[in-house]
Write a structure and sequence with these properties.
By secondary structure, the protein is an all-alpha fold. The protein has seven helices and no strands. The longest helix has about 30 residues.
């Protein structure tokens, strides 16, 4: 594929991530046991805040995967990152759909999150495939923990959001495992802490904005 074609594809992905309109290849997860009690306004607002945070996480994931895939040296690693990015695009579409169902919106700061994450992904990619894959694995581990915490705080009767978050969590575990099996290295504790700090900043902002 020519460089110009790749840049066009990456630009299209960025637009879908930032502006909406993402399409999922898999059907949106459903929970067979639907909540019988309608969500209160407070519960609806809380669910929307959490799903907006999750959507921002997927915007960041797209930026990270696209930039790291762009610089990956090994064609097999490029293909692995492409596959993971496609599943993350499903997550993006699912969260966007659920936000609309909840009568809410995606984060107004999405362009900022995408640009920052793309730059971080480029730095990880420039460090080499092993460090890049290690960054993927650590990111997915933190996202998994983050999603698990959402499952404990989402309203019990919001079964639709719960079904989406649970499938996302399972996918993130698999992505992290694949990255380590492909040769990823464990990141230094200092880097892990910096990633956790930036994640907290993102989640606290995205919940409201």
């Amino acid at each position: 594929m020519f460089l110009s074609d790749r840049l066009i594809i990456e630009f299209d992905t960025a637009l879908k991530s930032i502006s909406g309109g993402a399409h999922s290849r898999r059907s949106i997860p459903k929970n067979e046991v639907q909540g019988k009690t309608p969500l209160s306004e407070t519960e609806r607002a809380h669910s929307a805040g959490l799903m907006r945070v999750n959507h921002v996480g997927e915007v960041c994931a797209q930026a990270l995967y696209q930039s790291q895939k762009f610089l990956a040296r090994d064609p097999q690693i490029q293909e692995m990152l492409k596959h993971s990015a496609e599943e993350e695009m499903d997550h993006l579409a699912w969260c966007e759909t659920r936000l609309k169902e909840l009568g809410s919106h995606t984060s107004y700061l999405n362009p900022f999150w995408y640009a920052g994450s793309f730059a971080i992904g480029l730095l990880a990619g420039l460090a080499g495939d092993q460090w890049s894959l290690g960054f993927v694995a650590e990111t997915e581990k933190q996202v998994e923990n983050h999603l698990q915490s959402h499952l404990s705080t989402l309203p019990e009767n919001d079964q639709q959001s719960r079904a989406i978050v649970e499938q996302m969590r399972l996918d993130e575990i698999e992505h992290g495992k694949e990255a380590m099996e492909a040769g990823g290295v464990v990141l230094p504790p200092t880097v892990q802490k910096l990633m956790e700090a930036s994640s907290k900043l993102m989640t606290s902002s995205a919940y409201k904005i």
